[in-house]
Amino acid sequence: MKVKTILVSQPAPNAKQSPYFDLADRQKVKIDFRSFIHVEGVPAREVRNQKIDFSKFSAVIFTSRNAIDNYFRLAEEMRFKVPDDMKYFCQSEAVAFYLQKYVVYRKRKIYVGEKTFQDLIKLIKKHKTETFLLPCADILKPIIPELLNEAEVNWEKAILFKTMVSDLSDLKDVYYDVLVFFSPSGIKSLFENFPDFKQNETRIAAFGNTTIKAAEDAGLRVDIAATTDNTTSMTTALEDYIKVANK
Asked: Does the pTM of the predicted model rise above 0.85?
């Protein structure tokens, strides 16, 4: 069956230029965006219940912009003045760049990984005397605590925000040829919103091994897989499939 419509389970790109827009132009398909999940920050009392004291830490590990926003939000709510000599370990350049929203970049000690947490852990290992705080969501990739424990560094996690299922009730009678997922949470949201969802001819595209597994565990047929093993981007995987399906 040909592909004419695609729903990407993420917010629409902010930039005018995006691989998805280019894909839509090249392949003459309609691509819509809708976040299946959203993030909600936890209140300060929940952080205190976790026995987390921001002043105990000399370094912070940031893996996302949500982690940055909620760390500085809660620091303000808890009347904690972040020291100027705080060290920041950012998973990627994009995360580090976002940090400029809160600190004067050139005056802070900021260490930047290439892209993955595996890259960042190499930098963290060089600073074993630090006490690390990992601001994170309630759902944390298992590889992160595993690598930190293997590195034998002094660290604690602080759940500062939670991943919530978005209300998709307005999509009940809307059909797309392809649904694109990037996390197990997106798969969970699909079935929480539509418990009776039947895949039928809908193609499922999944990015990453954990998302692929979550889709299959939920009884879905994954037609388009972009795995982290071969570093195939989702837009490339979609285009390769569309070229064949739309012949």
From this structure: no
